[in-house]
Input
Amino acid sequence: MKLIRLAAAASFFACSSFSLASAETELKLWNLTSSSDAVNKHWEEVIATFEEAHPGIKINYETFPSDAYKTGLQVALASDAGPDIFFNWSGEDAAVLARNGLTADLTEIGAKPGMWGEKIAPGMFDAFTVGGKVHGVPTHLITKYMFYNTSFFADNNLSVPTTLGELKTSCKAIRDINPRMSPISLGNAEKWKGVHYISTLNQKIVGEEQVAKDYALDGNASELFSDPGYVEALQTLVDLSQAGCFNKAPNATTADASRSLFAAGQAAMIYCGNWCPGTFDSEGLEGGYDLARFPAAENGKGNQDYNFALLEGYQISARTKNMDAASTFVNFLVSGETQAKRARDFGRLPVNASHMGEEDGTPIFRKIAKDAGSYAGLVLILDVGLEKSVSEHYLSIIQEVLNETKTPEQAMGEIRARAQKAKEQQG
Amino acid sequence: MTVLLEQESAARRATPSSIFGTSSIFGWFMVLPALSLFALFILVPFIQTLVYSLYKFGLTSPTKQFVGFSHYLEIVQDDVFWIAFENNIIIAITGIILQIGVGLLLAAILDRGIKRGKSVISAIIFMPIVISTIAIGLLWRLVFDPNTGMIEELFFNMGWSTPMRGWLGDPDIALYAIIFVGFWQYTGFMMIILLAAMQGIPRELYEAAKLDGAGPILSFFNVTLPELRNVLIVCVLITVISAFKVFDLVYVLTSGGPGNSTQVMGSYIVQNAFTIGRMGYANAVSVVLLVIALGLGIVQLRTSRRDR
Output
């Protein structure tokens, strides 16, 4: 009798726990930590709106700092503790997870009626496509511009440089006006700011086709990175440094500190992303800035209308047990309303601008959004597109070139050797 | 006779039958939890690391490719590994000289030279050790900032020049800037250990030395130092092991840069494992690091036993 009671109780609890589990599907969503109140508030509101519209789905939102994110994500995805949906950069970061079978193939789901396939231009998915299969949904574009201090330029009758030659001349002019004013603020302590310069210069000087081939380690191993334009790109960075363009000790200055220098009016220009205006405004510049494209390389082989940009988006774990709910949420992220809200709340360029009004967003955001339509193409970012052992060496070597402890020729000799070794290991 | 009895008893203790005999079962039972934990957290991961070092695989690779000892051969030819190794050695040597040397000096001053406010001064010097290393790194990053940092301002106002590439941006200076921060953080810890040991030295020894005509300096070299010998060995061991384990301070202050000039073995392992995705190679470097640390520990213990 006792046994029967126990069995009855056990089945009751089993049934009740089953009914509880089936009442609500929980999804774990991972994202980068942001210090911006606007970004955090945006996510709170987006999740609340989604949960209200989908009462059976609960989103557990977790964020991590960007350094820890990539590592933590890889480890978690290989276990059962990983997220169902997670933010990722397009390119190699997303591709490596797809190649290792950690992300879901979203090709068929996206093609269904009402899903993201109908909301985003087909070409946008290329950045998340591996082996012909779509492994992520792009949500927005990040891009970089040369921001400049409008009042400083106006007060001193300076014109915005449009070529690298003009940029060097501007640097000298700014130093003559105020020796303590840095013409360009550069913080390369974490190594990625320098790589953004070189990614842009490589495309402009070497040309996009050759760059794409070399970054993919495509072709004959002995010819990889042998274009003299790569040396010229590094030499351009040295020339800018020698022309007094940068603040003191860029390799010892953090990216955050470099943004603060510009925001505090101690630097006339900065090569910064479309996420930077928020910092400029909150740290005192309050709209006293404008932007221009990175100066063109006069004799460069690349299309000078390319611009530095990267698609970012969301992937779904191959281990998720709630594929329908997860894809519903990702589809919600690329809906016209959510995309317009994202643009309004924190100035990211949406991949689906169907609900954007002409007056939505700040004037700077609208300027970037308008300009983005005229990009001839996107600059391939070195540490996103290139094999990791080579790109890590490139990151370090840019610091050494900037410090002038290695010549551009020596640096490229090392990069060539690394690239050849990486190609051999790939087989 | 006593010697013979001791030898016999030792021989009996060492026989396999007594080790595995009934009388020892209780002993084994008592150490079983500790042994299990040791096996689980030290032995198994070590064997796993050793095995993984023979394979090529990434953090999320579904398969592993056996490559034998090729990672170890690669280490020998890897310039960055040798830079990292050299940096660890420099950190260890300077740590012994600065942290233990200055710690000893401060402990001696507090023990014999200062009459009032000892606790307050010790607490102030000891304080950095209780702060998280990451927080210390971030704090010193701000202090070393080449454009707005406190040191830059101080030097500028004094009319002195600072390194053009910055304290953390110059490959010839950056490592010593990290060493300085380590010195700032750990000297208080060494001082407290040595001060505690100094306070345990019988005062009669100093009185006897004084009667023999020894002044404070002679007393320090002839009484204090010999009495601190064992504690100093422990301090050196702690400093050397910490020097080979260092990672967080380097990661926050320089990320191993500029170039690879401040790379240490810890940061190089992390870079290979998690950034580049060469888990097998990172495991091989870890094994080498373990062998070096083990070797140094054994040499140090043997030296201390021989001198005893």
